Structure formats: structure tokens, C-alpha cells
Amino acid sequence: MKYIRNTLEFNIKEPSSIALGKFDGLHQGHRYLLDQVKKARGLGMAAVAFTFDISPRTLSEDNVKVLLTNREKEQAFDDFGLDYVVECPFTEKLRMMEPCDFLKMLMAQINVKQIVAGRDFRFGRDRKGGYEDLVRHTHELGYKTVIVDKVRDGGTYISSSRIRGLIADGDMEEASRLLGYPYFFTANVTHGTRLGSSMGIPTVNQIPSPDKLLPPNGVYASRVILDGKTYPAVTDVGTKPTVAGSRPVAVETHILDYTGDLYDKELRVSFLKYLRPEKKFSSIDDLWVEISSDIKQAHAFFSTHM
User: What mean pLDDT do residues 191-196 have?
Assistant: First the structure.
């Protein structure tokens, strides 16, 4: 997969089927849409997704956390197996484009033969453009349009906002089911307090992007992807309240039965199951006892979920 980012100057010469969207979360509804793009490979078209380096929604609403950062979105797209992803910078020029001008820009830079979009897709200045505009310009600009309805699950639409609600409640299993993959975050390993190592339970410390939606503070059974390999783990999200001092929210993970120096390596951590809320303990010894119990719970979980 070729990932094109940080530029409005790109060119895809191959005949292409292109999906348009924010794709925050790249959930099951998005994947159904992208399946339509991949099907066009049978007609000799490249499978392309066009998205933005920041969700336009975040420019107008405060405190909206993303399900996937730009780096995580790249990883999720790579897992899905497209030919190209264009992560377009959401510049002032792009924001002010009229819907027809936006489509003409796409046609000038991608050999578009088919556009696939959801019925709720909006584009162009003040979000004036919709699926009707995609259909209206079909003959003028020379592409076929495929409009996809939102996917339902249990009588309710699958949406990024629905999944955000599940994650906010700590329901990682249901959130992961609607996503189609375990909810994850990616960051480099940083130096921590080394408290875990001092207790004989080494951990890796990561600082999440401030834009990233994290599940509630607490402890989770998790999986870690490192250098293409997957490891069972137990992860703590929180501020380490037992340790004195004010601390930002961090993610600290103990990889089960693993030894090695991971400092500055990129680690992908998937949250599988909520085990318990964050607690403040009266002593380090009490904390050690609880962490040991967390590890036992994680081992029990993985004995039936490997």
C-alpha cells in the first residue's frame, strides 16, 4: 500500500475506484464501504481511499477525541489492504473549496473512474456538498458513483460516535466488535518511573496523543504488537495515583513473559477487556499485591482468548 500524506500535489495515474470519508475508527461501516472499492479491482481499478490529516469536525467542536490518530489510521488502512491512501492536509484552500471544485481537484490528480461514498458524506465549503452532488456531476466529470447506506447492527447504525460511547464506558469487547478489530493505540516507549521494575514487574511507559480517545482509567487485558509479533499483556491507563505528585494520563504495559529493552520503540497496544478501575493504594506493597492479581486475571483471560 502506498500512503500519500502532507501534500495536495499527488498523482495516481492508474484507473481508480476511490472511497471518500473521514474514516475515524475505520469501523465495520467504513469497511463495508471500502469493500466496494476493493471489488473494483476485478474491473481493473486501483483501490484508493481519500481522507484528511485531521477530521474537519475537530475544527468546529471542542474536546472531540479521535478513535485513530493519523499514524494509527495508517496502520489500520495497511491492515485492510488497499492500493493507495491519500491523507490530504485540511488546508484553508481545501476548506474553502466549493463542492464541484473539490471534485475537479480529485479528477485532476487521480484517474477516477468510480467514487464510493456514504449517504451521509459531506464535503466542500461549509459542508455544502453531499451524495446528490456526487451523482449530479457523474456525466460531466466522467466517473461512476456508488452510494452506500450506513450499516446497521442490532437495529442501530454503526457509527464513530456510537463506538466512542462504548469506549468511554469501558466496553472494549463491544467496541472492538463494531470496529472489526481490537481498539488500539500506538506510541513510542518513553522512560517512566521504573516503579514496576523495582517490584520485579517491568513495564513499558507510553504517552498518548492528546487527541486520542482512551478508555476509562483502569487496568485492561491487552495485546502488544512489536516488530510484527503479538504478545499478551496487561495495561494500566491512568495517572499512577499511588505515586506522589501530579502526573498526566499515561499508558503503562506489562508484557507477559517478555524480557528486553523497548525504550523508544513504537508499540501498538490493543485493549481487549476491562479488568478493574484505577485505585490509589496505601503502600507500594499493596500495589504489588494488586498488580500481581491483575497479571493472574490477564493470564486467565488469555487461557481462553489466545
Answer: 66
